[in-house]
Structure formats: structure tokens, C-alpha cells
Please model this.
Amino acid sequence: MILILSEKSDITTNQVLDWCIGYQTSVIRANAYDLKIAHIDYSNNYILLKYKKEIIKSTKIKAVWYRRARIKYKYPSISIENNQLKNRIKQHLHEEWSEMIRFLEQWFKNNSVPSIGNYLLKDRKLTQLSIAKQNSLHIPNTIITAQKSELLLFFKNCKKNIITKDIGCSLSFISDHLIIDGYTEEVSKEFIDNLSDTFFPSLFQENIVKVYELRIFFLKDRFYSMAIFSQQNEKSRIDVRKNDDEIPNRRVPYQLPKEIEHKLLLTMKKLNLDTGSIDMIVDTKGDYYFLEVNPSGQFGMVSSPCNYYIERTIAQELQQL
Amino acid sequence: MNNTKFYTEFSTKDLEKLPVNYRMLTKITSTSKIISSGSENYTGIKVKLYNTTIVNTPRHYSSISKIIDFE
Amino acid sequence: MQSIHYIPNSLYELIEDHFGKTIDDIKEAYQNQYDDIIDEYIEYLNENNCVFFTDHPECFPAMNLQWDYPYKVSNAIIDWNKNSNYNIFEVLNQLDMLHCKHIQFRFYDPIEKEFLLKILDFLNQKESIINSLEIYIPNTKWIRQEEMENWFKEHLRISLICIHSSFDDEIIKITDDKIFIHTKQQIISSSHCGVISMNYFSINLKTFTESQHYNSCLNRKIAIDIDGEIKNCPSMTQSFGNIENNTLKQTLNNSDFTAVWNIPKDKVDTCKTCEFRYICTDCRAYTEDPKNLNSKPLKCGYNPHTNEWKDWSTNPLKKEAIHYYKLKDFKQT
Model:
């Protein structure tokens, strides 16, 4: 059977499941709290997993899709007075649990259980930019600085056209009546002048004047690309996620030049990624700029408009692994 | 859903120690309660086959039958 | 918002023959005799966001117009009237096992509220994959506007409620995907079905690609009529057995049943030359020539050669077919 590690809210997983079930593939979808380790047998080299109320032997698992994998445990609340000890215990239980999950992931690797994706990959855009550059991909001029003076210098060097974005993920906050989200934003001279002399280290990049941007889903060695003409709409010009529902951006199938695909392939291999969603920009000179890759990014918004049926491809891939 | 401006509750002193983009965080407020699919107990349809709850149930992309004459 | 843009045949020819060329090349291809018209055409396309320009046409391949679906059946019609007594829950059970997500119930006579609630509860208990229900019911004593609107919130599987034989004609959009309809029309049988109109145009990629290869109405559809007979649609005469002693699964494996799925618009008379053929619906149950499975839908009053919509029910050429199907005289209100 195929094990899919995902999260409750992921709709893409449902779509891939449709294809798996349509192909009559035996498949389990486990969300964060659905899996537990019941038994590890060293002599006979197997692990017993508890999936909800069922016991599954690890040897039954033929392939794994780490879609948005997080195997969590609901730690018990301890009824002791000492709060410090209580917190330390919770932390320790988490460490114990994490060790087992780390072992589970390694066990699949060491026993050649084929997979798509990775469990909790750590490298984000900083490393990705560096590796991309090493593999001869253009990246936007980038700095991280905590000094206003350095920022001003960078601003001038980039012909006064720069943006700022999060170093990792955005501060995504949702409460009952408030949503806060960080997007890529333009940085003006006035804005810089109003800054304090120092600040928390922040990421700045030259603002590439784009003809269009690319959203590319890749799986093993295949690239499914889409061009988004976001620069025509003021709302989406800097960050395509702020698009206008009334006048949606044009999204069309795209074919990357072979050398770009080759460089991307080398970059992804170096980053230990066999799947992910890549963001790129094509500038007015026709140069391709790598921005980042999200290992568990959404690809439905590439699959649907381009009629790629990526969800079907993943199901077929899992079946053949 | 309304007023998507920037969040401005940080004090000047706060902002001096925060990342620069905190001055430009998009804010959305809502008078009605926001239901997010990320929260633990959001309402939706439980589907056994998917082992999850779905919120959106789109109609079939074309009309299933054409029995009402809308002219 | 999806929309249609009309273009003259000459512009169609231009696009087909000269796709991917520069404007100058196109003008040259017509010996520069039509430069002004070509400029006008390009401006029209540009204004309506139908085209874009690029120095690298090789990077923009044509879209693959494939259509595919994971399950054997995607939608079902369940008809029911006061004489129906087949096991509706068995039908739902089988549809759930076949992973059919969209179901349309057509109740021709008043039914008890409890019956509907029983159906909704049945699907809830099952945690069924059936997640989109359309319910057509006649106006009955127990139906209250507010309560029915509430049903959309309480029973999330419901995506459409239509009260027919109602006091008014009204369409209320509950959300983007949920609609509440009132219609004065008295829908008493499946013979009302098969209406071809711009109101039923479906402008999206799924419909467009599906209609390239398959029948725009019957593809991946199965139906149970008021007597429990399994059919492609309740209006068709051919039965594939009764639900009492046949299963939906058996029927779907019967190539005679699925044969009609393979009649796309390009094989239907008149429709094959109509500009709306990839966004329109179809009807194989009521056709202009009942002996010819590929003839034009009976209830279509559009003439693609004159671009005119006329009332199909008063068209003398359709009189014989109307009589054949025993359809009452319908008027376009």
C-alpha cells in the first residue's frame, strides 16, 4: 500500500487520492495525528505503525508520498505542581517522539522504500539562492542586512528599485476576526529614510522588471511550467498572490528552454529535492531568474489552468514506484 | 471581509527591533468570524475516503440536467 | 468571470492559419491589402485580453486539450414521484461505492421533509464521497423560505435547491457555489428536460475539453428513473435493467450503456457547425429525428447559419418529433 503523509486541510491530497482510488491502488492518507509508532522490532527489521485504530506493518508500505508530512503526538498534560519541570517533561517527550520519527524516515530510506518528497526539509530560500547561483542560474541581487546605511547603498546599486520579503515563511496569523500576512513589497527611498538606523536582519532584493513570472512544478526530472502575466495588473505586479479576482492574471502553459531545465535539475539534486514548486521571473532581456522552491508548495493553480493533470501524474508515479 | 491595509499597531519602538517588512504586513479584518481550514475544528463535510473534512463542494462543472426553462 | 467573445469567420481563419507569426508577416501574407482590418482585429483581441505578444513563441506551446476523470461515473440523476418505490438508499449506497460525487434529485410530486432529512443523514453517517447534491422539489406546505436557506448551512452537501411549481421565479445566490431557485414551472416529469439555451452554457476548461471528445450531457452520467429503471438519463427510452435486480456497476461495465458517451458535438448534425458547440450542453433523449442518434437536439431553437434563436416548440419542422416523444406544447415564457 501507499502511505501519503499530509495535513487535514490539503485539498491537493484529496485530488491525488481520487486518482489513486480510481486506479484501485491501496492507499492510506495520514494527517498529523493519525500515525503512531506502536512497536520497533530490531531482530526482524520491521516497525508496527498504528494508523488510527489499525496496526500496519511497515513492510506492507510500498511507497511514501511526503506531501506535507508532520507526524505529531498529543502530549499528555501532567498533573504535577512544578511548572518548570512540567515544561521540561513536555519538551523531553517531544524529543523522544522526534527521535522515533527521525528513525521512521531513515528506516524507509535504508530499506529502499521509494518515495516522493521529503520529511521536514530544512533548506529555504537563502541556501536555495546560493545553490542556484552555483549552478549558473541568475538570481536577483540579494542582501540581508540589519543596517540602514548598508540598505541605502544597496538601494543605489539596484538603481533605486528594490523589494523586501521574508527570509523564511511569511508571518501568517489568523484569529477570529483578524488575518495578517506578509507579502513581497516594494521599498521606496521615503520608506528607507523613515527607518531606524538598525533593525532586525531583513532580506532585500533588486526588483527584476519582469515580462512574466513562472510557476514550475517539478517531479523527478519533469517540469510542468506555467507563465503568469502578473505585471499588467497593479495589484499583482509585485506579489502575484495579491491578484485581482475581477481581472485575473493570464496563466498559460510554458516550455522552459532546455538549458534552464538542466540547471534547475542540478540545483534541485543538490538541494536533495525530487519535487517542488519553483518560482522564477523572466525579465525584459529574456533572462531567467530563480527566486525560490517550495518543496511542498501548491501546484493546483498550475495543473488546472494548464490542463496538466499533475495530480494524475503523481498517482501514476506512486503506483509505479 | 474588508479593509486590506497594513497593520499599524506596532509602536515606533517595536518597529526598530523588528524586520523591515513588519511595517508592511497586509491586514484583513472581518466582522463575522473567520473560518480557516487550518484550525482544528472547522466545520465541513467529513469524507471517509479522504480521511479529512472538506469545506468547498463545488457543483458539477456543467449542468447535470436541463429541466428548467429559464427563458 | 467567464465570457464569450464573438469573432467573424475571417478572423478565425487568420488565427488558425497565422498563429505564432508576427503582425507584419501576417499583413504580408495578404499582400498588405488588409492592413487596416488586421490592425482592427488585433486591437479587438488585445482589448479583450484574448492575445499576448512575445519574442519567444517556442516557449508557449499549445494547451493540451485532454480530458480525463478518475472515476467511471461523475454525476447521477435520481428521479422520484408518488408512485416510486425502489430502494433509493441502495442507489445512494452504490453511487457512493462508485465514487460518484454529484447527484441531482428530481422529485416530481410533494415529499415529506423527513424523507429528505433521512437522505441527508444517510450520507452524513456514511461520511460519503457524494458531496454535491441538487434537489428539485415541488412547492409543498412545509417549505419555508428561511428554513430552506438555512439548510445550505446545516447540510453542507447541498449545492442547489430548486422549488418548482412555486409562486415566483427567482434565483438566489447563497454563495459562489450554492444556489436557491424558485420557478413557477410545474415540473411533473422528465419530459421537461433537454432544454437547450444560453442559460445552460458552461464556459470553463473542463467542459471545453470534455466536449472535444465526449458527449456534453451524458458522459460519465448514470440515472434512475421513477420506476427504478437504470438509464443513461431518465428521458431516454432504453433501460439497462431495474435497480432491484441489476447493479449500477454492471451497467457501467456494459459497453452499450457507455456507447452514447462517445458522441461529441462534432458528430452531431447542425451542432458540428455551431460556434457554441464546446460550451453548450446536449440532449440525445429528444432529437429532431428520433431514428437518428446523431441528430440535433429537439429543444434547440438556434440556427448557426443565421445566428438566430427561435422558439423550438412552434417550429413546424419539429412537430413530428414532438408528437413522437409525446411532449406537451411548451411555450417559451
Summary: The interface with chain A takes residues 7, 15-31, 33-34, 36-39, 47, 49-54, 56 of chain B (CB under 8 Å). The radius of gyration of chain B is 21 Å. The mean pLDDT of chain B is 85. The beta strands of chain B are 2-6, 25-29, 45-47, 52-54.
